[in-house]
Design goal:
The complex is a heterodimer of chains A (about 110) and B (about 110). Chain A has about 110 residues and is mainly β. In chain A, about 0% of the residues lie in helices and about 55% in strands. Chain A has strands at about 5, 10-15, 20-25, 30-40, 45-50, 55-60, 60-65, 70-75, 85-95, 100, 105-110. In chain A, strands 2, 4, 5, 9, 10 and 11 form a 6-stranded mixed β-sheet that branches. Chain A is globular, with a radius of gyration of 13 Å. In chain B, the strands form 2 sheets. In chain B, strands 2, 4, 5, 6, 9, 10 and 11 form a 7-stranded mixed β-sheet that branches. A 4-stranded antiparallel β-sheet of chain B has the order 1-3-8-7, with no helix packed on it. Classes of the chains: A mainly beta (about 110), B mainly beta (about 110). The interface between A and B is medium-sized, with 24 and 23 residues.
Amino acid sequence: KQEVTQIPAALSVPEGENLVLNCSFTDSAIYNLQWFRQDPGKGLTSLLLIQSSQREQTSGRLNASLDKSSGRSTLYIAASQPGDSATYLCAVTNTGNQFYFGTGTSLTVIP
Amino acid sequence: NAGVTQTPKFQVLKTGQSMTLQCAQDMNHNSMYWYRQDPGMGLRLIYYSASEGTTDKGEVPNGYNVSRLNKREFSLRLESAAPSQTSVYFCASIHTTYEQYFGPGTRLTVT
């Protein structure tokens, strides 16, 4: 069974800092990997989707990379802002039928 | 374009009561999913429907039933609620690229 791990579980940084969130998975035969943001008491908002054939995707200040062979993805957030404070989750699918989630990294950006 | 909607937003049940959680999407997606989210455990798949008229069990189906009413609607039923079913329930709709779109969630407490 696919296992997805996100370390650290929590991260606190000062405003303006660049930061990297990590996601690792045990089965490298994935179809895609998706990064989400979840605000307290809210649903999941999709940030970036990386197909297995891609190495990275960018959206604004966010850049996600994928290294299938090592079972790793990173989410890079540039020039962090207090509004970036949220929990960030990654999810992978091997078959397109079942998706496996990490438990998330809770990010706090201090003004 | 509302995306994925869920009702109700909050619900409190007594042990043994039944209820149905409703989910609807207006993105014309074939696949719809039900997850539960518990602290420290990430999101776990309860049931999914790959297309209208089909449903399949996920990781934690016990105590739940589902109905894919039509292409837009996918409901989750708890026949006899138990305290272990206290959780946040999310419905997701899946694009053909396997990108997931989530509803806002239903927060259920069983006493």
